[in-house]
Amino acid sequence: MVETMRAYHEAGFDGWITPDHAIHIDGDSDWGHCYWAYAVGHIRGIDQALKGTSRLA
Question: Which domain holds residue 5?
Answer without folding.
Answer: 1-11+29-57
